[in-house]
Amino acid sequence: MAVDYAKRGAPKKKKPAAKAKPAARGATRKSAKAKNGPGVPIGALLVTLVVIALFVAFLWFLKSGEAPDPGVTEQGPAAATEELEPLPEIPAERWQYIEELESQQIQVEVPEQAESRRRLMQCASFRSHEEADNLKARIAMAGFESQIRETTGSNGRWFRVILGPFDNLRDAQRTNNQLQRTGIYGCQIWLWNLD
Fold first, then answer.
1. DSSP H or E run through 117
2. What domain range is 164 assigned to?
3. How far apart are CA 164 and CA 188, in angstroms?
4. Rg, C-alpha atoms of the chain
5. How many structural domains compose the chain?
6. Which is nearest to 182 in space by CA: 148, 141, 150?
7. What is the average pLDDT across 170-178?
């Protein structure tokens, strides 16, 4: 069976129910308590009060259980300071090592033969004179004077770029370090034997 909802029409509105009148004054109070629910539980209130009391007792124990200050006696702090011995005076410091260092001299033993012999420094050896000239120009740009020596040996003719003579090994090493800072590496320090 089919129902025609269009012909049925709008649903009928319900009428609101009439409010009940309270019978007596006491009945109104009971119904208000029933609507609000039960009151504060007495057990939770007691537990809260016990916790607060224990916390206060703990704080009181901490305060009264502190160790007494050793500087304070029954007579007061002034009496305690009078009983202590006075501290000794600070001794004057005397720095001896400064005077000792000023008067000391450092002595370095250098073997006289190794230091006093003359040195030369060879920076490269080339087959062509042009390559030797290029290196000589780079050394001149670094601020040092070099020489090109031609040598002929069992393996042919070579052009050696040398610096020196240096009076000692220290001067030769200083020059070599300065050349390395400018990008010229591979110089070797030898004893002078080009007389």
1. none
2. 121-191
3. 12
4. 55
5. 1
6. 141
7. 93
User: Is 102 within the bounds of a domain?
Assistant: no
Is the alpha carbon torsion for 131, 137, 140, 145 positive or negative? Answer: positive
Task: Report how far residue 122's alpha carbon sits from residue 192's, in angstroms, rounded to the nearest whole number.
Answer: 11
Q: What is the pLDDT of residue 117?
A: 81
pLDDT for 99-142, tens place per residue?
A: 777 777 777 776 655 556 889 999 999 999 999 999 999 999 99
Return phi, psi of residue 163, to 5°: -125, 145
d(CA 94, CA 81): 32
- Residue 170 near residue 108, CB atoms below 8 Å: no
pLDDT in tens, 70-93: 555 555 555 555 578 888 888 877
Sign of CA dihedral 130, 132, 134, 137: negative
The domain that holds 132 is classified in CATH as 3.30.70.1070
Measure the CA–CA gap between 120 and 153, rounded to whole angstroms: 20
The larger pLDDT score, comparing residue 80 to residue 164, is at 164
List, edge to edge, every strand of the sheet that includes 188-191: 147-153, 156-166, 119-126, 188-191
Q: Is residue 98 part of a domain?
A: no
